[in-house]
Amino acid sequence: MKLVLLSGGSGKRLWPLSNDARSKQFLKVLENDNNELVSMVQRVWGQITSNGLGESSFIATSKSQIEMMQIQIGSDVPLIIEPERRDTFPAIALAATYLYSFKGIGLNEVVAILPVDPFVENHFFGAVKQLEEVLLSSDSELALIGVKPTYPSSKYGYIIPSESIISPSDFQRVSHFREKPTEEQAEELIQQNALWNCGVFAFKLGYMIQILEEKGLPIQYEELAKQYHTLPKISFDYEVVEKTNKIAVLPYEGYWKDLGTWNTLTEEMKNQQIGKGTISEDCHNTHLINEIDIPVSILGLSNVVVAVSPDGILVTDKSASPRIKDFINYDQGPMYEERQWGWVRILDDQKYEDGRCVLTKRIGITEGKNISYQMHSNREEVWTFVKGEGEFIQNGNFIKVKAGNVLHIPMRTMHGIRAITELEVIVVQSGIQEDVNQVVELYSTWEEVAQNCLKV
């Protein structure tokens, strides 16, 4: 069995910490057994590997998340790259063609799909392993995991079984689905032995390939990737699951939670506070997550989340926090990004009446890492080094730099830098707003730069 972990979402419901460059699954707010802060994807991938599934697992993610994924779980994890975000049906279709045409997986191989953001115990993955047996012994086209509800929730979809449990496989036939009912309706569904739909399911690879052929879509990965922008933005549940007749569900009784919103995420955080600030003693069930250096004080407020990042500030009642996705539509790029070589934080972004634009950012470069040898077509830069030492090259000329040095980099000038020690730079980039800036990269590694450019 092959396992595909879906990790392509944007995670706007966890704004302002999540953005287009750092989706919700990359936020380090959970704790592992060593009391270290880890992200959702780090936690789930750790569980996958500890349960012996790592060697047969892949992660489907968008092109914009490759760098962050490699930073957090390593460059050796096999990735299936989506050209853009388009929902779960296109993502799973692309993953199927990748396994079939690129990896040569047989049509009878079982493929299990798992979302990136469930908070589960390790034995949940025992149920994932069972999906192959359930699929084959039930002669179904799809096999799902359904979580036995612990309360009537209106946040989840429900799987309604059509018959009692069948021994020895313990699976049930699926009658139909119900998406996010009211709490009263959920209570009635639970009386019918309905299960929470946790978004985990399995199918034979040939089943998905057949669906693509019936839709007239390519079954070769590269060809489908070229047409990816034309695929409908629709979930796999709506496009496939609800149109499938032969479905089995494996009931799972154990802890499971979707960590997609601030109220559910904070329930699993061991610390009430991350970052600078104060929460007064008369606050109850209140969480502060602060990623900037300005302290935040919370006095006399209970059942709230205060989240602060360079992208913005959120103050919300926990019960209202899922609505954030409907309110966030700010026309700005990410103000903070983690990169393979370090990080970038936007300090100021100004546009003036005379057409000039000035972008000020603070850049941190990890010891031994480098920024590629590149040039800007229509922006000049002034670099002020505030911490550490490095090697800088400009149009083939090599110099050593350290804290206190200031450099001017004209437009269309090749330049790059490597950190000898941990390095921080304030970069002021300016130009004419109407002149679109293109970044031209010549070499990405310092070895290439040293071999082809350095004049010591």
From TrEMBL:
Residue ranges annotated for the Mannose-6-phosphate isomerase type II C-terminal domain, each copy included: 339-433
Transferase among keywords: yes
CDD domains, per the entry: cupin_PMI_typeII_C
GO molecular function: mannose-1-phosphate guanylyltransferase (GTP) activity
Pfam families hit by this protein: MannoseP_isomer (PF01050), NTP_transferase (PF00483)
UniProt-listed PANTHER family: MANNOSE-1-PHOSPHATE GUANYLYLTRANSFERASE (PTHR46390)
Keyword Nucleotidyltransferase assigned: yes
Domain Nucleotidyl transferase as annotated: residue spans: 4-271
Transmembrane segments: none
Protein name, as recorded: Mannose-1-phosphate guanylyltransferase
Keywords: Nucleotidyltransferase, Transferase
Gene Ontology biological process terms in this record: GDP-mannose biosynthetic process; polysaccharide metabolic process
Lineage: Bacteria, Bacillati, Bacillota, Bacilli, Bacillales
Organism: Paenibacillus abyssi
